[in-house]
């Protein structure tokens, strides 16, 4: 098998070749490594190789739906015992941090027969919608190397889009699967709260707003992976209802006629690009051609209030995590990025009453979405407000940096988030990605589907949100859209 042939298959397709002894797992690994050597110097997607581990694994008698398929994990929470892990952070990279356990999600992936050959680039602690950590550098977008791959699962998205592997681990706490899926032209689904495990280190992340899954080129790979990883574990807080039918079977059945609401208006009042509007209008036309009913409407939710509640939780949780890492590693402020220190300083000033009030508001958003889904089957919005930004375009203005440094040193950084400045900070932080946090706060499943590329051949995903635990409905529609407008051939246009 040649590299170009290898790149044409999805994960299940490669596993089928291995099962039928048309190719060996060791051969696939060698091809994946060759592709790394060609593409990664341009992309900077893989930052911690695991070649020795992968080569040993090819010698095992592997079983499962992805037996023998090359795979990558995100360098954030997806720990492998004995493998250096940095969370995109200079402090953990220098230490180095070497976990003493496998994450449960990794164990479930391993049980599918995958062969993990490396860890992928992510922003420091996954706190940004782009992947440009000081510790590792920017991760380029394979569609256009001057643009970013998105975040926080940017390295995984870049590697999958470039054909290094057909499937890679990802996570989504505020859009971190759907944002890079949108920017890199991939299929990316965020599962419902509690669908996939967080153990053994945690029972859940950010009150269930953050979930782990994969980025893929095909719908069927994502469905098969969720079949393999979904379900209760000993660390889970509660049991989510199991699907009535495997997702891999669900996608074989077309959905019934769906009533789908859509909107292209930013919930926080920020600009939405012509590309994002065009992407949704294009998707709406496809949906109508398939017999679905498409109506412009949106839930009765104050988008800025939701964004404030998201930011409050996000900053507060991050402040706690950074404090824990400092205590465990004895790292100093200079070992972390300025933006990380600023967010942690903001979060540290949140009172318990404010935090609980904010968390209680989450229930209001859940209720409003339940009312909304009494009228509609799905909600369609852009995954991102524009195509991928250029590398270095999303950054703290240079004039703000010395002010931030001084305020952090004086313990006064929280002054920046008082009064009207709060809304300004929210708009500045989320203007590129204002559409994804709704599904995280409400715990609803959501997906980005690659149906649109602009004149510069940069993709932008269409995001669908479904009622709780209805991943089956998302997968059904995604498979139908994939058949109506196949996107797999688009990857041949990537030059890297």
From TrEMBL:
Pfam families: Amidase (PF01425)
Highest taxon, organism lineage: Bacteria
Domain Amidase per the UniProt entry, residue ranges: 27-474
Annotated PANTHER family: GLUTAMYL-TRNA(GLN) AMIDOTRANSFERASE SUBUNIT A, MITOCHONDRIAL, TRANSAMIDASE
Entry's family note: Belongs to the amidase family.
Name of protein: Amidase
Source organism per UniProt: Acinetobacter radioresistens SK82
């Amino acid at each position: 098998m040649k590299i170009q042939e290898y790149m044409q298959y999805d994960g299940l397709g490669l596993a089928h070749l291995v099962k039928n002894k048309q190719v060996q797992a060791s051969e696939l690994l060698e091809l994946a490594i060759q592709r790394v050597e060609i593409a990664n110097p341009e992309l900077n997607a893989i930052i911690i190789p695991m070649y020795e581990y992968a080569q040993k694994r090819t010698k095992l008698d592997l079983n499962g739906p992805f037996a023998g398929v090359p795979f990558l994990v995100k360098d954030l929470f997806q720990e492998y015992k004995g493998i250096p892990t940095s969370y995109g952070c200079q402090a953990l990279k220098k230490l180095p941090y070497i976990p003493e356990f496998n994450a449960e999600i990794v164990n479930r992936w391993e049980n599918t027969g995958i062969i993990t050959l490396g860890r992928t680039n992510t922003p420091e602690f996954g706190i940004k919608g782009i992947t440009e950590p000081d510790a590792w550098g920017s991760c380029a977008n394979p569609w256009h190397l001057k643009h970013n791959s998105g975040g926080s699962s940017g390295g995984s998205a870049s590697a999958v889009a470039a054909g290094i592997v057909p499937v890679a681990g990802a996570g989504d706490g505020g859009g971190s699967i759907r944002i890079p899926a949108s920017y890199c032209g991939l299929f990316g689904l965020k599962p419902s709260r509690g669908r996939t495990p967080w153990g053994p280190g945690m029972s859940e992340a950010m009150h269930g707003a953050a979930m782990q899954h994969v980025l893929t080129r095909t719908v069927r790979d994502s469905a098969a992976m969720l079949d393999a990883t979904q379900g209760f574990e000993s660390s889970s807080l509660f049991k989510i209802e199991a699907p009535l039918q495997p997702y891999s079977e669900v996608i074989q059945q077309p959905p019934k006629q769906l009533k789908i609401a859509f909107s292209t208006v930013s919930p926080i009042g920020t600009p939405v690009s012509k590309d994002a509007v065009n992407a949704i209008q294009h998707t709406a036309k496809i949906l109508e051609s398939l017999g679905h009913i498409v109506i412009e409407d949106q839930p009765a939710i104050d988008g800025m209030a939701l964004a404030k509640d998201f930011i409050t939780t996000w900053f507060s949780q991050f402040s706690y995590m950074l404090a824990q890492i400092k205590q465990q590693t004895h790292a100093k402020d200079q070992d972390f990025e300025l933006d990380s220190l600023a967010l942690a300083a903001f979060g540290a000033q949140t009172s318990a009453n404010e935090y609980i009030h904010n968390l209680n508001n989450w229930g209001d958003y859940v209720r409003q979405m339940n009312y909304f889904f009494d009228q509609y089957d799905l909600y369609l919005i852009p995954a991102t407000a524009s195509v991928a930004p250029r590398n270095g375009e999303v950054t703290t203005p240079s004039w703000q940096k010395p002010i931030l440094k001084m305020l952090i040193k004086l313990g006064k950084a929280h002054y920046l988030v008082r009064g009207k400045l709060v809304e300004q900070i929210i708009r500045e932080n989320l203007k590129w990605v204002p559409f994804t946090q709704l599904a995280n706060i409400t715990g609803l499943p959501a997906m980005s589907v690659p149906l649109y590329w602009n004149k510069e051949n940069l993709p932008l995903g269409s995001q669908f949100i479904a009622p709780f635990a209805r991943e089956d409905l998302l997968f059904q529609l995604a498979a139908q859209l994939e058949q109506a407008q196949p996107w797999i051939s688009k990857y041949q246009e990537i030059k890297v």
